[in-house]
Design brief:
36% helix, 6-stranded mixed beta sheet, 16 helices, 7-stranded mixed beta sheet, 509 residues, single chain, alpha+beta, 21 strands
Length: 509
């Protein structure tokens, strides 16, 4: 058995996570693996995670999807980053951007000292990237003649998660040869060494495989219920554990489609506001230790009323979600890998959920164990990589809270308490008081959030670095890059269509 080749992969659970897993693995191992997905129609998907990273473009391209079909079938739009409102001091007029494009000249020179000293009237994102201005004008990241998945400026997507899962299912079954079993998994069988040999379904009996991927969400049907791998709670650092979600129609059919996720800080959490072609997806993520459900309900209604939502705010029906912030101690155990919410979940502040699915499945695809003999080696490598990645995500999300000057509620005060700040983040903040975040601060070639992302949040939130005189020698080069950014910004403001215009051209053409 140890030398028997891996030929069958069984994915338990559907939705966006399950079908992304099926598509990525099937496209990467067309001739050598039989990929099956079993999902129960009795188990609804969460279906509210509507933001992706730019990595999704390459993922869709590699599995053979047409961008035009994807945009049309998934009610998708272009996302160029996140706009953070009210995070510094609670003022609704105060904001900063974390765009998807690198700062101008980032790989060539550190321009932070020059910006900080000579451009006091420009926000960091506006000085370093055209995307703040592009987003403020609700412009698209490319033109109609730009090929599928190519970009003028970097972009990801906003999408309808439920439609995305169905779109992927159709593509995987029709184009990639994935076997789809609609059935309810009731239990699993293990051999004498603890490896899963099959899952038992209600209608189709036992389904066997060599590798099992658990995409059953918070239920953790295989990784938890069968194999007993515990979650590691992270509530000591990130407090949010509740969400209210609602779909909001546009006031007009030609209303502009926002180019970024808008994240607005409130008294005990924050609101996401995501623009799709036909509606907005809005939700309030909050801490049950700092707010009652009734208070959260009232805050979200006030937000909708302030934004003049076309639905009457006092009559909106909110979907209530609960989650425990944390992740597995072991994501891959024996011959089972947890992916998506079965691996863990924390607040969706920087839309890392689908990106983690992409990264997890890409590593499984590229490091697919040839047989049982090397399974434990691959599992150890996978667990080390993703423990590191989850820690870095938590560091980065905590950064948004630590830098805030808000002290208006216990929620914000507790977030800035030293015992809630991870040691590594505390050390980096001490370093960054004397130099800007740099690539040497992060060790992996595929960092979840690179140094550029830390720069956008740090300096967007008003952080100040006290540079030494040596930084002056790069001032001339930095000035040239920032002048080039200004030229590019002006050119793009005049040359790019709006999101709505481009989406109409692509999906109606």
């Amino acid at each position: 058995m140890m030398n028997d080749p891996t030929t069958k992969v069984l994915i338990v659970g559907g939705g966006a996570a399950g079908w992304l897993a099926a598509g990525i693995i099937a496209a990467g191992h067309r001739s050598s693996l039989q990929v099956t997905l079993v999902e129960s129609q009795d188990v609804p998907t969460i279906g509210v995670g509507e933001g992706t990273w730019p990595t999704m473009r390459e993922t869709l391209r590699r599995i053979g999807v047409s961008e035009k079909s994807f945009l049309k079938e998934c009610d998708a739009s272009f996302k160029q980053g996140t706009k953070f409102v009210g995070w510094q001091n609670g003022d609704h007029d105060e904001f900063y951007y974390h765009p998807f494009s690198l700062p101008q000249g980032f790989l060539d020179v550190n321009s932070v000292p020059y910006w900080q000293e000579h451009m006091p009237g420009f926000s960091f994102a506006a000085a370093m990237s055209p995307q703040q201005q592009i987003c403020e004008h609700t412009l698209a990241p490319k033109q109609a003649a730009t090929p599928d998945f190519a970009a003028v400026v970097n972009y990801g997507y906003h999408l309808d998660a439920a439609k995305f899962g169905l779109f992927l299912r159709d593509h995987c079954v029709r184009k990639l040869g994935v076997t789809h079993v609609s059935d309810h998994v009731e239990s699993a069988n293990q051999d004498e060494h603890g490896y899963i040999t099959s899952v038992c379904t209600k209608l189709n009996g036992a389904l066997t495989a060599d590798l099992f991927i658990d995409c059953t969400g918070g239920a953790g049907l295989l990784i938890d219920k069968q194999l007993g791998q515990p979650m590691r709670a992270r509530r000591e650092t990130l407090f949010n554990d509740r969400a209210l979600a609602v779909q909001v129609p546009y006031q007009r059919v030609d209303q502009p489609i926002a180019s970024a996720t808008v994240s607005t800080a409130l008294r005990a959490g924050w609101v996401w506001d995501i623009a799709l072609p036909t509606r907005r997806g809005v939700g309030y993520v909050y801490s049950s230790s700092h707010s009652s459900d009734e208070q959260a309900d009232s805050e979200l209604r006030n937000y909708l009323q302030r934004g003049k939502a076309s639905c009457e705010a006092d009559k909106c029906e909110f979907r209530k979600l609960r989650f425990e912030p944390g992740h597995r101690d072991s994501f891959w155990y024996k011959n089972c890998v947890a992916v998506g919410m079965s691996a863990g979940f924390i607040e969706p502040l920087e839309a890392s959920a689908l990106a983690l699915v992409e990264l997890s499945i890409a590593m499984i695809r590229d490091d697919m164990p040839a047989n049982r003999e090397v399974m434990d080696i691959v599992a150890r490598r996978f667990n080390e990589r993703f423990q590191y990645r989850w820690d870095r995500i938590i560091d980065f999300l905590k950064l948004h809270y630590v830098l805030s000057k808000r002290r208006d509620t216990a929620y914000w005060k507790d977030h800035q308490s030293s015992e809630t700040i991870p040691d590594r983040l505390r050390e980096l903040l001490a370093l960054w008081r004397h130099r800007a975040p740099a690539r040497l601060d992060f060790y992996q070639t595929e960092e979840i959030f690179p140094a550029a992302s830390y720069q956008y949040v740090l300096y967007g939130m008003g952080f100040r670095t006290h540079f030494n005189e040596a930084a002056d020698e790069y001032a001339s080069l930095a000035r040239k890059h920032l002048e080039e950014n200004a030229r590019q910004t002006e050119k793009m403001l005049h040359g790019l269509p709006t999101n709505r215009e481009l989406l109409a051209q692509i999906t109606d053409g």
